[in-house]
Amino acid sequence: MLRPADYLPWSLSALVFVCLLCFTFLHHDSQARFQRLMEEATAKCLQARTSEYEQVVGAWRRAAQRVAREQEATLNQSKELVRDLMSLKEGRLVPSSSTPLPAVPSSAAGLSAERVETCFQKVWSQIDQFESMMKIERRFATLWLAKQILLRGLRGDFIEAGVANGGGACMIQSLLSCVGDRRDFYLADSWQGLPTPSKTSFSKEPSQFRGGEFYVPFARFVKEWEGWERNWTREGFEWPRLNGGTAKVLKGEFQATLPRLRDENVSLSYVKCDGDMYSSTFECVQFLYPRLECGGYIYFDDYHEFGECQRAVKDYLTQTNQQDVAEDMFSVRQGFGLGVYDRTLTKAKYEAVFWRKECERKEAGRRREGRRRQVSAEVGERSGKERQRSSRGQVP
């Protein structure tokens, strides 16, 4: 017969076995719970990161769409330039000078795109006959700008500040005479060479030029102008006499002659600044850019060739708070490269720059900035009043 003491080992074994079963069950349950908690935490973390990522991507997409809308006009203009350049390289912009022209319309407002394009090609076919210091790429750019102004129906006058021997001016006037456009064309130059450089409050560096440099006598310009007058009148086109019609000579230094356009309230659609040095370039943009109508073009022939010219343009834009104009610049590159101004390329690859005056977008930006400043001022004033009330409330 078994004694009670004999049951003790069996009882202990059973108890240990039960404890092991309980521990195994509890351990497995805690592992499952821990795994469940980790999965939930991971899911929440991924959800939060996904939401944050979607917000960042959404903001980036909205910003990209806004920039694309703002640059749409510039990109369209670049496409027009590329089309013209491809036609030029393929030889389709150099027809025979005897190409028949449509009848001259009664007014410039009635110009047809066909006539403007035909006259553009006719003038371009004679490009080597114009006596000019301008390189061929720059001649094409200025002639293309004049064509765009005619196609867009802009009514402002033309001005060339820095005429020299007049080949570039005769080229532009040839296009105007060919299409029958009778707007005023201002020709500004001293015909005494560059003025004597002087340090101004704007130019902090000495000039690289000497007084009298690039001297061209006035008689040489008159000879060039009258030579083209004979050529075009022989073909039955009108050509204005100097100071006897729409060709208006402004002889003298820019600071003395260009303010006349402001005094006479002249509206411009084409401005060519070819003053080379700092003072001449600054005076050109200072007096003429405010006269440029919305949609008109301003062109700087020496922007990348002479550092003084570029510095004068940047100084003017900075002083007038128009630095965003740089985003609209088109560059004239060597080898007939025309396109959006790329500041990452080297200086040696560029010839000149131009841009179209955009008024609506700039005015909207100025209005937004004005509203922002007004709101900031109101918030600052309100905060100041609240601080005054709080300080008075703390006084016993």
TrEMBL record:
Range of residues in the leader sequence: none
Source organism: Guillardia theta (strain CCMP2712)
Q: Which PANTHER family match?
A: MACROCIN O-METHYLTRANSFERASE
Q: What are the protein's UniProt keywords?
A: Membrane, Transmembrane, Transmembrane helix
Gene3D superfamilies (UniProt xref) = Vaccinia Virus protein VP39
UniProt xrefs under Pfam families: TylF
Protein name, please?
Methyltransferase
Report the domain of life of the source organism.
Eukaryota
Give the lineage. Answer: Eukaryota, Cryptophyceae, Pyrenomonadales, Geminigeraceae, Guillardia
Please give the start and end residues of each transmembrane region: 7-26
